[in-house]
Amino acid sequence: MTLSSYEAKDLFQWLTDKEDILVLDVRNPQDFNRFQVESPYPFDMINVSYYDFMEVEEESVAKVAKDRPIRIVCAKEGSAKYVGEILVKHGFDDVRYLTGGIKTWGNLLVPKLLHRQEDYTLYQFIRPGKASCSYGLCSGGEMMLFDPSRNIEFYFEFAKSQACKIVKTFETHLQADYIAGSRMIAEETGAEFCANYSDFKAAKTNHKTVTDGETHSFSKGGPDVTVMFTPGHTPGSTSYLIDNTFMISGDTVFIQSIGRPDLGGKAVEWAIILFETMQKILELDDNLMVLPGHYMDWNEATDDLLFCLPFGQIKARNKEIYAISKVDDFIQFIQDNMRPQPPEYGPIRLANANLEQFDRERQEELDLGKNECAATAYAKAQAAA
């Protein structure tokens, strides 16, 4: 019996394949409760602190089931290896530790094919640890990215696997909940970085300002990408329409709820703007496939584990919100569902505007944890629980 390692992508595959494993998280309870592994399907996970294994070894080992594979998670890797060695010593057969610790789960991107036709393919990159989605559009050997994360090596490798060159990278808004990758990708590849002036006017980034209604095209045909301003979550929130079929909605339209307009400290002012945007998007075709920037849980996914739904179905799911016909009532809805934003959001905004930069370890700390971008009573209840 020997201890071995595994990677975050392996864990995601085991969980989606519904393999009978036990995930043992050995971080302290506070860190475990703040952010933990989640799966599309139920699975068994327990939290027994690394310190408990140090101080009360026999009692801690007794809490771990011995009849199935054990997959250990810790903060940085070392604690998981230590606990794994203890379990192997106690006769456990199949014990593995997560390489790189929980941060590798937080940075994991899972590519999923959304749509393929003769002249283009569209991919959704799901980030389970952040409950967020970025997108890749490929045509004629070129690739456009939308809301990439800072795991830029993943996008480089994926583009290579598709025999594509990254030519443009778009931001739907100045992100607050994760460190974005567009600036870094543009610097590494020479791709054009496109963003809305209203969000990026103070940013120290070499970006191209987009205008409402303009289109972006590939060199050799393929679909058009049309810019659609959808302010409210932020003043510069922007959606992108692909082939008049898909809407990359950023943090404006979610499958469950809408983007909260209070993160900038101007809840009433931005709620008024978001209400006006809602009247605009209500005119969109019900068959338009919405591709959100975030999700709240895996219940929003399709049977194929994609986060994609026709706008008509989204309106039906959120009829209480979309039925609000008066701006004052909408403001009240927002105020009723306001909650404190995570303290990491301020520094993340500075990083994304390139007004301040942090070392790799600090970036990992800031970037860990699920998003808090939806305006919803569900999220408020979760925060109070």
Major sheet description: 7 strands, mixed
What sort of overall outline do the alpha carbons produce when their principal axes are compared?
globular
C-alpha-based Rg, rounded: 22 Å
Q: Between the first and last Cα atoms, what is the distance in angstroms?
A: 42 Å
Q: Under the CATH scheme, which architecture of the largest domain would be assigned?
A: 4-Layer Sandwich
CATH-defined superfamily of the largest domain: Ribonuclease Z/Hydroxyacylglutathione hydrolase-like
**Strand arrangement, major sheet:** 6-7-8-9-10-11-12
Tell me the total number of β-strands: 20
CATH topology of the largest domain: Metallo-beta-lactamase, Chain A
Tally of helical segments: 16
Derived from helix and strand composition plus strand pairing, the structural class reads alpha/beta
Low-confidence stretches: 377-385
